[in-house]
Amino acid sequence: MRKIDAADARLLEAVQSDAHLTADQLGEACGLSPTAALKRLKRLRADGIIEREAAMISPRALGYNIMALVMVTLDREDRGVIDRFKQDIRNTPQVTNGYYITGDADFILTVVARDMDEYDEFTRDFFYDRHPIKTFKTSVVMSVVKSGGPLPVHDLA
Fold it and tell me: Gene3D superfamilies recorded for this chain (predicted)?
């Protein structure tokens, strides 16, 4: 892991809140010239510290009124089953987040749907028809308190 200095930390804090800052704004945020700030930003991307930059879109604004957290336990835990399940998570648009975890379940997924009928159809297809699922437990999100929050970087410098 590359060492993060104070200027890198300030730059990372700035781009986590707004990835479209101008070069002047980036320089001001990290106490460097705009050119130096852009060079650092390019290096942070090249080093894999900044994995990607994306817009945060409101699910409700697009009609996704249901957001569910789903704990999934596979019926078999051999490498092929796990790898196929991971690949299907990556390829399924309704699954917005997927984590392979330790503990009582094998995976936790975030799934969006327009309504409960659509979510029911998703579960029938994704869990019953495609994969050897032992159990899955759904918790419907009532409200999002914090999502996509920035990583704490100020203590890394």
Answer: 3.30.70.920, Winged helix-like DNA-binding domain superfamily/Winged helix DNA-binding domain
End-to-end Cα spacing for the chain: 13
Q: Does the residue 18 lie in any domain?
A: yes
Distance from C-alpha of 1 to C-alpha of 49, rounded to nearest angstrom: 9
| Cβ atoms of 82 and 154 closer than 8 Å | no
Please list, residue by residue across 36-73, b when 16 or more beta carbons sit within 10 angstroms of its beta carbon and e when fewer do. Answer: bbbebbeebeeeeebeeeeeeeebeeeebebbbebbbe
> Greater confidence, 90 or 78?
90
pTM exceeds 0.70, yes or no: yes
Q: Are strands 66-74 and 107-113 parallel, antiparallel or unpaired?
A: antiparallel
Q: Which domain holds residue 21?
A: 6-46
Q: Coil, strand or helix: which one is 97?
A: strand
